[in-house]
Amino acid sequence: MQRKETLSLGDVLRKFIKEQHLDIKINETKVLTAVDEVFGKHLSSYITKKSIYQKTLFISVNSSIVRNEMMMMRQQMVKLLNDKVGEDVIKDIIVK
């Protein structure tokens, strides 16, 4: 039996990831790792916890000054993080 169309291993893996809806979690993980890179070393040092739930990024910060600064820059940070990943993964950021 011969195959008429051969697929590369990368194509098969991409198809499997898409069918199993694993791409959502992979992109969320990419966003969480990109937070430190996008926010910079200074702001990242104040972040104590970060998580994503229903397309919302939750960030816990241990400084009220940094919290206010992040609250003012929320929409810009959403755009930068989504651009870094290449897809619209998050819609909002809540800073605690």
Rg, nearest Å? 18 Å
Main-sheet strand order equals: 1-2-3
Let me know the number of strands.
3
Q: Low-confidence runs (pLDDT<50, min 5 residues)?
A: none
Q: Structural class of the helix and strand makeup?
A: alpha+beta
Q: Given this structure, which CATH class is correct?
A: Alpha Beta
- Pattern of helices and strands: HHEEHHE
Count of helical regions: 4
Blueprint (SSEs and pairs):
Elements: H1 9-19, H2 23-44, E1 47-53, E2 56-61, H3 64-72, H4 74-85, E3 92-95
Parallel strand pairs: 2-3
Antiparallel strand pairs: 1-2
Question: Can you put this structure into words, describing what you see?
Answer:
The protein is α+β, with helices and mostly antiparallel strands and 96 residues long. It has a single domain, classed as GMP Synthetase, Chain A, domain 3. It is 56% helix and 18% strand. The chain contains four helices and three strands, in the order ααββααβ. The protein has helices at residues 9-19, 23-44, 64-72, 74-85, and strands spanning 47-53, 56-61, 92-95. The chain has a three-stranded mixed β-sheet. A hairpin with a 2-residue loop joins β1 and β2 (56-61). α2 crosses α4. The longest helix is centred in the middle third of the chain and has 22 residues, at 23-44.
